[in-house]
Design a protein that fits this description.
The complex is a heterodimer of chains A (561) and B (214). Chain A is of the alpha+beta class. Chain A has helices at residues 15-18, 21-24, 34-44, 83-86, 90-93, 107-116, 142-150, 157-163, 197-221, 231-236, 250-253, 255-273, 280-298, 305-328, 335-346, 349-360, 364-367, 390-400, 402-405, 446-457, 466-472, 477-488, 505-516, 557-560, and strands at 48-56, 62-69, 74-81, 95-102, 129-137, 165-174, 238-243, 417-421, 428-432, 519-523, 529-533. Chain A is 43% helix and 14% strand. Classes of the chains: A alpha+beta (561), B alpha+beta (214). Chains A and B meet through strand 9, helix 21 and helix 22 of A and helix 1, helix 2, helix 4 and helix 5 of B.
């Protein structure tokens, strides 16, 4: 069953062009990104957010509960903050543990979760716990916000915009991790049908908590002078996130998801490029988004030299894009395809991929239904086809993995790295090959594995079945299954060497985070990147009247000046 | 310490978890016990299939992985003719035999001695789906019936969880089994079993510092 069964395939970009690390490392959020899917649902289905419990002292210690009520079910975020007095270390003092619970959180849930997330013990979640997020106060902004508000003033909007959050998440556990509910338990719930909706709801509620916590601490510090955070700076606060190598092998470990997510994004782009005309309304919206994106890029900074260069090039790209659209308009036939072709020849990878996001933006009616295809039951993809003949498998490898077979793995630089799992967290990490026992290497390099498979097939006759071959070489099962899958799923493989000395794990992280809906990618090294979710998004009390899609690059009026 | 003749013995402590963490843990444990990542991955999937049906896959896998580490892997793979698979050593590894029978899409097969034969069931379920027929696995004192969709099942007999069967047969089902995925469950396993799997899994992980930053 091909991922493209129900979708027109005309004019999708060639996977050999799309599935490259450099391009993955230039991806931007788009209207199919999971944070935006969640926000459209919250606004569209009339969700309300309540705060039934606020038991936080003047140091920030205590518990708060937020309940999001949808048409059929509700979910509660239980936020537990140790505060100054109960935390064991100063670092812990600035932390908060937030658990999204299925339904209403009862008092015994609160006691249970307080114990579960306490210092020192093993963190275990239960059947109703959907997601645990640990977050920390931003060293750059949290105290600044409290101080300004306590003195009766508002923070500098520029600074709020630049940092983008008061709380930054340091770990996210869901989908069965630490004993939390498996996705199977939520399978029939429309609100969680798209990927990562549990995490996105959790982050959205944490954002509400972060603003309330800032207001609360300011009021407690100076009850007579303190004021509440104004609407505009509140909107400019999202939730921060720092992501590292643990997430990097995601698309390598989930080739079916990679195929579906990238395939759907390409389909959305192809549908827009296929339009014969752009309506006045669509053109107007494109102009607005382009203006917002320019302001957003102008206020996006990074201390990482590579990203700083990419941002500068993107800034220039957008100026030229603006001028091009100004000069040529979008009134002729196939305007988006023409614009796209211009962009492909004129813009940097960052510019091209942002253009892809921008041209989709006016077309919710045309592309939003694709989100339904982004959730995949990976178990359905799995069985190895043992009846295939070795000759056909060999041909398949030459066909689908020509790029992989061309890599010279005798060059030590081509195998400079080794992926392994960290003992404490079980998460993926990267190390120089020479520094670790090779037995610990995890299979995160399809290109290398496919070459090993091709070698193993060398002396095997064409008419031997694959079943017989893997019976003798069971260690090759994974590579065989993967190759059979890649034949049916064009976007399943990233066509680069993930062991190379020049590998930037950032590229892998960027693509994943863009699909999640992150903005303001700010790498702090080649392996860690800081991002923001929901910056500029409507607040919980604005959901009813909000434009659920107009916020993504919206910048405060000051930044437009 | 409870003394002999004291009141009822307290059951060992258990821990509830999720199927996906059990699957990941068994995968890492299997690799820690010496299996290739390819087989380890399938071991995880197989135990999840069994645990989702409240069948004792996790304990059988832990026992087998611990025993297997001391055996010559060459003796564990099936050999022999088309319809009969015999161990080259004392017994077949159910993971090697299971993956092979799924790959071959076998509907009828006689196997010699198999360790932890219940671990064959998830693979026979794959074969049932591939062939589009119900299948039965039988050994002395146990019968496992697998529905045509690879999801539905029925298991009976006192020897389901036996650590070794002298012979196992696979054949088309004599009666239909209800298809359909089981309702989601939460595996509740003895804490000691989680710890055994964690100890094996630790062998496939490395303690090195690559800390985060902000």
């Amino acid at each position: 069953m091909s991922s493209s069964a129900s979708v027109c395939t005309a004019a999708r970009r060639d996977p050999a062009r799309v599935m490259r690390l450099a391009r993955l490392g230039s991806l931007h959020s788009c209207r199919l990104s999971f944070a935006r899917v969640m926000l459209r649902r919250l606004a569209g289905d009339g969700w309300r957010v309540e705060r039934p419990t606020w038991a936080v002292d003047d140091t920030g210690a205590g518990t708060a509960i937020y309940t999001a009520r949808g048409p059929e079910r509700c979910y509660s975020l239980v936020a537990v903050a140790p505060g100054d007095r109960t935390a064991r270390t100063t670092e812990r003092r600035d932390e908060v543990a937030c658990v999204l619970v299925d339904g209403v959180a009862a008092p015994d849930d609160v006691a249970r979760l307080q114990a579960a997330v306490a210092d020192g013990g093993e963190t275990r979640l239960g059947a109703r716990d959907l997601c645990l997020v640990r977050a920390r106060r931003s060293t750059r902004l949290f105290e600044t916000l409290v101080t300004s508000l306590a003195a009766g003033g508002q923070p500098e909007l520029d600074e709020v915009e630049r940092v983008g959050y008061a709380l930054r998440t340091i770990s996210v556990h869901a989908s069965g991790k630490l004993g939390s509910a498996d996705r199977d338990h939520l399978a029939d719930r429309a609100e969680f049908a798209a990927p990562y909706q549990v995490e996105m709801l959790t982050l959205y509620l944490i954002r509400a908590f972060s603003v309330d916590l800032v207001d609360h601490l300011a009021a407690r510090r100076a009850p007579r002078t303190a004021t509440a955070l104004g609407c505009e700076p509140r909107r400019r606060l999202g939730v921060g996130n720092a992501t590292g190598p643990g997430l990097a092998p995601f698309f390598i470990n989930h080739p079916l998801l990679a195929d579906r997510w990238f395939g759907v994004r390409e389909e959305a782009l192809a549908r827009v490029r296929g339009l014969e005309r752009a309506t006045v309304d669509a053109r107007r919206r494109f102009h607005t988004h382009l203006g917002d994106a320019r302001a957003h890029v102008a206020s996006w900074s990074s201390t990482h030299p590579l990203q700083a260069r990419k941002i500068a090039a993107l800034d220039d790209d957008l100026a030229r894009l603006d001028a091009h659209v100004e000069a040529h308009g979008l009134a002729e036939r196939h305007p988006w395809d023409a614009l796209w072709r211009w962009g492909e020849s004129e813009l940097s990878l960052e510019g091209q991929e942002l253009l892809a996001s921008l041209v989709m933006d006016p077309y919710g009616d045309l592309v939003d239904d694709l989100v339904e295809q982004m959730a995949v039951d990976e178990r359905a993809g799995g069985r190895l086809d043992g009846r295939m003949r070795v000759g056909d498998l060999r041909a398949l490898l030459g066909d689908v993995y020509d790029w992989a077979l061309a890599i010279d793995f005798d060059d030590p630089d081509a195998r400079a790295h080794l992926w392994y799992a960290d003992a404490a967290t079980g998460e993926a990490r990267l190390a120089p090959r020479a520094t670790l026992d090779p037995e610990l290497e995890r299979p995160c390099a399809p290109a290398y594995d496919v070459q090993a498979l091709a070698r193993a097939l060398d002396q095997v006759a064409d008419d031997v079945t694959v079943a017989e071959f893997v019976l003798r070489r069971p260690e090759q099962r994974g590579a065989v299954r993967r190759a059979q899958l890649a034949r049916r799923h064009a976007y399943a493989e990233i066509r680069d060497n993930t062991l190379d000395a020049d590998l930037l794990p950032l590229d892998l992280l960027r693509a994943k985070l863009a699909f999640m809906g992150a903005t303001r990618f700010d790498p702090s090294s080649d392996r860690w990147v800081r991002v923001t979710f929901y910056q500029g998004a409507p607040l919980a009390d604005e959901l009813e009247s909000a434009d659920a899609d107009g916020w993504i690059y919206a910048t405060p009026p000051a930044a437009h000046a | 310490m409870p003394t002999a003749g004291s009141t009822r013995r307290r059951p060992p402590p258990t821990r509830e978890g999720s199927l996906s963490e059990l699957e990941a843990l068994v995968r890492d444990a299997a690799h820690g016990a010496g299996l290739s990542w390819s087989l380890a991955e399938e071991a995880g999937t197989a135990v999840r299939w069994l645990a989702a049906r409240r069948l004792p896959g996790a304990v059988l896998a832990a026992d087998w992985l611990e025993r297997r580490a001391a055996l010559d892997p060459a003796g564990l793979a099936p050999g022999g003719g088309r319809g009969v698979w015999l161990p080259q050593g004392e017994q077949l590894c159910p993971l090697l035999a299971g993956t092979a029978l799924a790959d071959h899409g076998r509907g009828e097969l006689v196997l010699g001695a198999v360790a932890a034969p219940l671990l064959l069931a998830p693979f026979a379920a794959l074969a049932a789906r591939a062939r589009g027929i119900g299948l039965e696995l039988a050994w002395e004192g146990a019968l496992v019936c697998l529905a045509v969709d690879g999801e539905g099942w029925r298991a009976e007999g006192p020897e389901l969880a036996v650590e070794r069967a002298a012979g196992v047969s696979l054949h088309p089902a004599s009666a239909a089994v209800q298809p359909g995925r089981p309702k989601p469950v939460r595996p509740e396993l003895p804490l000691a079993l989680w710890r055994r799997l964690e100890a094996l899994a630790a062998r496939s992980r490395a303690a090195r510092g690559d800390s985060g930053d902000d």
